[in-house]
Write a structure and sequence with these properties.
Radius of gyration: 75 Å
Low-confidence stretches: none
Strand content: 5-15%
Distance between the termini: 194 Å
Number of helices: 10
CATH topology of one domain: Arc Repressor Mutant, subunit A
Mean pLDDT: 84
Bound molecules: iron/sulfur cluster
CATH class of one domain: Mainly Alpha
CATH superfamily of one domain: Winged helix-like DNA-binding domain superfamily/Winged helix DNA-binding domain
CATH architecture of one domain: Orthogonal Bundle
Order of helices and strands: HHHHHHEHHEEHH
Strand order of the largest sheet: 1-3-2
């Protein structure tokens, strides 16, 4: 507005200086054109510039805001995805850790089981060993219980001490013959050695040594038996020693068929009636003594 009034003043001054009507008209025309231009410009101003510029800015701002929001949203989405991935990774890690712990625990349990099995086997083995030892001890005890005084003597004495055994002030040949005669009367059934020692009034110590001596001489055999809960021996005759006294009455010395007599012949001591009669008489005679 100031610009226009200045312009008008300037033009009025110009007009004052001009004197021609043509020039005034020209100025008037110029003025009206300027006025019209000014009017146009005033009319267009609110329509074009002031209105269009703020809309574009708003759109741009809105777009920018939208983009920012989209960006923000995207960033948020990415952050969430990242967070989710992190969470998943952590969960995976945790699951892996748990699986490893489980595996470790299972291994531990398996080892404990194995150890327990081993211990059970060792215990079983130990129990078996103990049972075997107990069985052996029992057997040993049984063997010990079965052990006789004669067996101990056999361990303690030498063969020479057994065969050379003598009883003080006793005719050993006579005693041995006498023992064999008694044992022979019991035949294959034999006689309990304790009964025999009683008959002969011998101590168990001497009797046991005599029994060993007679066995070594091949005159008797000893059979181990359990008598009244105690292990002892039954003496059985193998052969009787023949003394010169008994031989003096032997039928063979005066036998008429002695030349025809042989062990495997028709005439034989195995079937000889003379021999049988002679033995019976001899036995009876000795029993009566
Ligand atoms: S065994 Fe009899 S048959 Fe032979 S020699 Fe003696 S007594 Fe005679």
């Amino acid at each position: 507005m100031h610009k226009n009034s200045d312009f008008m003043a300037e033009k009025k001054s110009d007009l004052g200086n001009s004197s021609t009507e043509g020039a005034a008209d020209e100025i008037k025309m110029k003025l009206s054109r300027l006025k019209a231009k000014l009017k146009d410009s005033k009319r267009k101003k609110p329509v074009t510039t002031p209105k269009s510029t703020p809309n574009k800015i708003t759109v741009k701002k809105k777009e920018a805001k939208k983009q920012v929001e989209a960006k923000k949203k995207e960033a948020k989405k990415q952050a969430e995805a990242k967070k989710k991935a992190k969470k998943q990774a952590e969960a995976k890690k945790k699951a892996k850790k748990q699986a490893e712990a489980k595996k470790k625990e299972a291994k531990k349990q398996a080892e404990a089981k194995k150890k327990a099995k081993k211990q059970a086997e060792a215990k079983k083995k130990e129990a078996k060993k103990q049972a075997e030892e107990e069985e052996q001890a029992k057997k040993k005890a049984e063997e010990e219980a079965k052990r006789t005084y004669e067996e101990e003597l056999e361990e303690q004495l030498t063969e020479e001490q057994i065969t050379d055994f003598q009883i003080h002030k006793t005719d050993m040949d006579k005693l041995i013959n006498h023992i064999c005669e008694i044992v022979a009367t019991y035949g294959n059934n034999g006689i309990h050695q304790s009964d025999l020692w009683k008959k002969l009034k011998l101590t168990s110590r001497d009797g046991s040594r005599l029994a060993l001596k007679l066995e070594r001489m091949g005159l008797i055999t000893r059979e181990k038996i359990l008598l009244k809960g105690r292990w002892t021996y039954k003496l059985i005759i193998i052969k009787s020693p023949i003394g010169t006294d008994s031989l003096s009455g032997a039928p063979c010395l005066v036998c008429p068929v002695e030349s025809k007599c042989s062990l495997d012949g028709d005439i034989s001591p195995k079937t000889c009636q003379f021999i049988e009669d002679w033995v019976l008489i001899e036995l009876k005679t000795k029993k009566s003594k």
